[in-house]
Each structure stands twice: as structure tokens, then as C-alpha cells.
Fold this protein.
Amino acid sequence: MNRENERAKPMVYMLLVAMLFLSMTNTLFNMPVDKIGFVAFCVIVVVLLPYRGSFRVSLLPFFIVLLSFLLSYLISIDEFEIQGFDSYLIIFFMTGIVFLIPYVTQGYRVLLQAFIISSFVYILFGVAAWCYSVLTGEVFFVKPLYGKQMADVYAAISFSTTQQVFGSIAMLNCIAIVWLRKYGIIGKPYFLFSLFISLVAIFASLNRVWLLFTPVLLLFWGGRRVLYAFLLLGIISLPVFLFYSDVMLAFGTVQSRFMMIDNLLDFWWGQEIRHVLFGRPFYVGDYFFMHGRYFTYVESGPFYLLIKFGLVGLFLVGVLSILWIGYLYKRSWFLGFFSLYYLFFVQFMTQEYLSVSFWLYWVIMFCLMAAKKYKVKEYNLA
């Protein structure tokens, strides 16, 4: 690949950074700037990046899943309501990804640069806002844990709506910089500082699913010595952990999740056969009653797909995920394991299909695979 063609013009690069940052900021303005940013990002990549590469990925599984989702809409067209339903966001993001992937795998270098910088600014602001809120008691771009009756405990969220999305973007940043550092593509000073801030962000998000994955990340990066060093640091920081122990060690969320699943299965199985197979993407209303209130939102990814796109949609997404994990595992056990953890366990415990973090995962994974294929050690990303 021609090195000159691999360099984006500064203005294009700045636009990519700005649009990626906007795509993560769905609470910064009282308008959907995250959707606008994502569309603008896709347009810039497709139209303005002059890359011609040889790295190819079959898009057929993505098209099959997308067509099955569209079929679900067609089958349930008699239930169409112009307001209220949210499943269209999956079609919106997936359509963008399908058009984006061929260009992502050709322009991976500048896209990785843009993501690392934009996500770092996003994460740094979230950590700074969290520190400010903890020290002053003011609620400033953080989420008090009212649901756990801990109004004085804050979870970092930056410009996202939930700590899960914030934690996922922080972990994606960790994955990208650790992978690039492993291959000597990123400078050590920036790497260490960015990794530290990202790990603080994951802790500040109070998100247990990513805290559980952190030892695997550290083991991949530096082996047992680094893992032992961070475990020692964790022991030294034990008082801080004990302060948040009611959050970290609470099992109420897990118990509620299984109760929710039981109720969702009852709801799904009680539908017409067409909705059992293809879902109800236009459904707006209550799913079940629990803990003294009605639930109108499905918090578990597989069950969201099951209800919105039926057994057929869930099956096809599962097949796509398994094929993708197998593809990654043959090339990197670490990225394969991370994807298994993220696509199955994390999405089971919550769901990010309606958030940009889930779709940025695909962009970053394709970029990292392209970087591995082309072995771009000659370039320094920071």
C-alpha cells in the first residue's frame, strides 16, 4: 500500500476526530448529535478517504441479518406507530456499518488515530467530571445510583446516558492501545497515560462486567508481572474498594436480571406465532410488572432481539457472532476472547444495540485486523 495514500489530509482527519467524538455525546446537546455525528463519520470515511486496499471481508452475513430485521418490520407493518419505538436504531447503525466496513479495512490507520484521540478526550472528561462530583457533591455528568438507594455514590458516564456505554468505550480504548502497543505501533508515554486514565474510567463507571475483564487485559499486555503489580495496587487501594463494596458486591442486579428474563419469556411466548418467529419491532408498551412498577425497556441484549426481531432474528445474530468470533480467534486469541465476552456475556447482562458503543466495537475490530494483516510497525500512532 502506498504510504502517501495512507495519509489523510489534516482537515479530513480533524473532521473524523470531531464526528467520532460527537457520535459518543448523546447528552451534550438537546438534540441527537450522536446520530448526526455517526452519519457524518460514515459519509467522511466513504467519500473523503482515498484508500484502495486489498483487505476484504464478506458482508453477506451482515446483509442476511439486516434483511431478516427488515422482514420483521414488514410482517408487523400493521402495528406501525410513528412515535415511540426504538428498534429502528439497530437498522440505522447496522446500515452505516455495512457501508463502512470496506472502507474501514482500507483506512484503518487514520481511523484508529481518530478513535484513540476522540475516545481519550471523551474518557478524560468523564473522569474529570467524576472527580469533581465526588469532591464537591454536585451532579455533573455523573449518574447517582438512585436505583440502589445510594444517591451519594456517583458513576462516571461522561456524555453518555449510562455507565455501561461509558465503560465500554473506555474498554475499547484500552483494547485498541494495548493491541497497538503490543505490535510496537504506539508510543510508550502516551500508551501508559491513556491506559491509566481508561482504567480509572472503568473503575469510576462502577461497571462490574468490565472490572471483571480488566485482569485479562493486563495479562495480555504485560504478562503475569503486570497483573501481579495491579493486584498489589488493588490491595493497597482496598479502602477505596470497601467504600464502594455495596455496589461492587451487590447481587440484587443479577437476581433482578433473572426475574426479568422469566417475565420476558412469558411475554414473548404469549404472542402470535408470527411475532414469536419475527418479533414485534413496533411494539411500544409494558413488558412486565416487577418491583412495584411496569417495565417498558428490555435490558438484556438477547431478549431484546428475541422480542423485537423474534426467534429468527436472534438465531441469525447468534450465528453471525459465532462466525465472527471464530474468524477473530484464528488470528488473535485475545480479540476472540474479548469479542466472546462482549458479544455474549456483556450483552446478556445489559444491551448496547441502541448505543454507538456497540457499533464502534465493529469499526475498531476491523481496523485492528487490518493493522495486523498489513503489519504497520513502520507507523507510529502517538
User: Anything to note?
Assistant: The first helix runs from residue 10 to 23.
